[in-house]
Every structure is written in C-alpha cells, then in structure tokens.
Design a protein that fits this description.
CATH architecture of the largest domain: Distorted Sandwich
Low-confidence stretches: 222-244
CATH class of the largest domain: Mainly Beta
CATH superfamily of the largest domain: Glucose Permease (Domain IIA)
Number of strands: 16
Structural class: alpha+beta
Strand order of the largest sheet: 11-7-8-9-13-5-4-15
Number of domains: 2
Strand content: 25-35%
Shape: elongated
Radius of gyration: 34 Å
Helix content: 25-40%
Number of helices: 5
CATH topology of the largest domain: Glucose Permease (Domain IIA)
Length: 280
C-alpha cells in the first residue's frame, strides 16, 4: 500500500469483501431468487463499513486530532503502559457503523511500533485497553512532545492493520491503519494537554480536535526544585549523614562502657563496706 493513501471513498481493505459478496449475491439470485437476500444485505453492509471519506484537517499547531470516528468513552488521567508515565488518556469507541480507518493525530515521527496479542472483549470496556489485541504507535511531535496512540481490537474485530513503522514521519490526518469490524483507539497525551472533548461526544477522524497540547513542556517551578532537593539529598549529604550516625553510635557505646565501669566500682565499694561492718 502507498505511504500516502488517497482516501478513495471505499477503503482498499474492503474490496475483497465487497467483490465476494457481490458475486455471491448475483449467483444466488440467479439460482434461488429471494434466498439471495442475506447475501445482498452483507454486500450493502460491507459497502458502508469500508467507506473511507476524506476529511478537513485543522492545522492549529497545538491541536491533537481525533484518530478515528466514533464516540468518546474515556477522558481521564491514567498510566501510559508503553512509556510508563502518567498521561491524559482519551479513548474513542468505534461501532460497526463507523468509519474504521485510523488517521494520525499529529505531525511527527514514529519512534516505536509495539504489537501485543490478546483477547477480544467488548472494546467499550476499560479492560479492553490492557487485555485485548492491540497495536501501539509511539510518536514524537515536531516540537518534541511524546504522544501514544493505540489500535485496540474489539468483540467482533479480528484484524488490526498498521502501515507505519519506527523512523517514518506522519502528517496529521494521514491514514496509518485500519481495524476490521468494531474496535477502539486509545490516545495518551502529556498531562499538560487540555481535552477538547467529553465522554459521550461523537467525533470524526481528522476533523475533530481531540485535545490541545502545548508545543513545549512546562518548566519546573522553583518550589518543585526545592521539594525535590529535600526529597532527594545531594551525594555529598549522604556521607555526612553516615558520619553523624557513626559518631552517635560511638557515643552510645562509650556511655554504655562508662555505665558498666561505674556499676562495677559501686559493687566493690558495697562489698568492702559489708565486709568491714561484718567484722565489727
């Protein structure tokens, strides 16, 4: 498949299904008349499922675009399992009547593509993000911000297609993948991103702005630096602390020895007194 897919109204992935359904429908119609109705229904369904229309693409520099058609099911702070950092997670659920091609949400470079085999539970459920078959694309924007977008298979979906790989560039709105028959896409953004959608919103690939992501990461405040200094002592402070502990240990040992000597002397004096008074 070409790197820049031209969006020809019907997705290339659907032509085998559409052609096969059409041929069967014609053959069964010729042989059995109205018994061919289920085959015609399947052919019409395939036509609508594999539609792949072009969309307007907002060019705002800080805009993160929606990677798929569907409905927003998650907007929350979560852990990005691919980068192992806290992130803003936004999930789009696609039913069988949505367009199922995936478009890049950013302008940037792919740093890693990670595929994970898994189950095929309902993609609308939260556990689908960690249990279902999925394919993650880790990318970096042109300004250096890190974004992760994950194709997740669904209850009916049995095939995730991804056409990009590490080292390649993606342009916002560029088609990079396809999922067959129901699924979801998870997007993980840095915590300073501001969601532009809410749970329940219907969204469209490329044309809907999913979130606003500042071009540069926020600088660490002086207060945060002071807190980090307190929590993480310098390398020079560690030996000093160990030295203080050693002095304390020696002092405690000296006190214990002195107490033992005083008690021994007192015992000797007590014994001498008792002996002298015993003679009298």
């Amino acid at each position: 498949m070409p790197r820049f897919y031209p969006h020809p109204i019907i997705a290339r992935e659907g032509w085998p299904f559409i052609t096969g359904g059409l041929i069967l429908s014609i053959l069964v119609t010729a042989c059995a008349g109205w018994w061919s109705l289920p085959f015609w229904v399947f052919t019409v369904f395939a036509l609508q499922f594999f539609r792949d229309p072009s969309r307007p693409i907002p060019q705002d520099a800080d805009a993160v675009l929606c990677p798929a058609d569907g409905r927003i099911v998650v907007v929350e702070r979560a852990r990005d399992p691919y980068r192992n950092v806290d992130a803003l997670k936004i999930s789009v659920f696609m039913n069988v009547f949505n367009v199922h091609s995936q478009r890049s949400p950013i302008d940037g470079t792919v740093t890693r593509v990670e595929y994970n085999a898994g189950k095929f539970v309902n993609a609308a459920l939260d556990k689908a993000s960690t249990e279902n078959e999925r394919n993650a694309v880790l990318a970096t924007t042109r300004s250096g911000r890190e974004v992760t977008f994950v194709q997740v298979a669904g209850l009916v979906a049995r095939r995730i297609l991804c056409y990009t790989k590490a080292g390649e560039s993606l342009a916002r709105g560029e088609r990079y993948g396809f999922i067959r028959f129901g699924s979801r896409v998870d997007v993980y953004l840095p915590l300073d991103a501001q969601a532009n959608v809410a749970i329940g919103d219907k969204v469209s690939a490329s044309s809907t702005i999913l979130a606003r992501l500042p071009l540069t990461a926020p600088e660490q405040s002086p207060l945060e630096s002071q807190v980090e200094t307190v929590v993480r002592p310098s390398a020079a402070a560690v030996p000093a602390a160990e030295a203080v502990e050693s002095v304390n240990a020696v002092a405690e040992t000296g006190v214990e020895v002195a107490q033992e000597q005083i008690e021994a002397s007192a015992d000797k004096v007590r014994a001498a007194v008792e002996k002298e008074f015993g003679k009298q």
